[in-house]
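Project standup — Tuesday

K.O.: blocked on the structure for the chain from last sprint. Re-posting the sequence here as requested.
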Amino acid sequence: MDQEQLEYFRQVLIGERKRILENTQHTRREGLELSSDDMADENDLASALYDQGFNLRLRDRERSLLVKINKALRLINEGDYGYCEVCDDDIDLRRLKARPVTTMCVECKEDAERKERSYAPRDNQDRARAARFGGLSFSRGADGKAAKDQGDLIFDVDLGDTDMDDMDEMSMD
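H.V.: unblocked you, prediction finished:
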């Protein structure tokens, strides 16, 4: 990547950081206060509290983005910006333009997302089962079996005709 491209990304990242910091200051000045109009009745108060919570969640997401922006700016300064942190290949310019804070090429990011999906609980029932069985999580396979995993170890359990909802009654000893 040449110096002109690096400067372009530096300016994009600095502009985004400035926008986030301005939003944060605005929220600190005005977003945390409830006016007397907001407390006229329970519905107004509920609406104001919802809006306040929503704004705080946005600021938290922006805080996470700010960490990534600072990391990207550091990488630019160190001369390592635009290289995948997994395979060290160049990250495509189109990807960097779409997401300037990215640290992985498309292929490595897709691999990471596939691995993440394979270990993530599929729904609230799966999360509940994982909590009941000491952190073990369950996933459904195409072969009619459920797989229980702990870390990188995956064990198949033959459930036969057992419905996954019946897993609540099974002992995993």
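K.O.: great, moving the ticket to review. The beta strands are 137-140, 146-150, 153-157. The mean pLDDT is 76.
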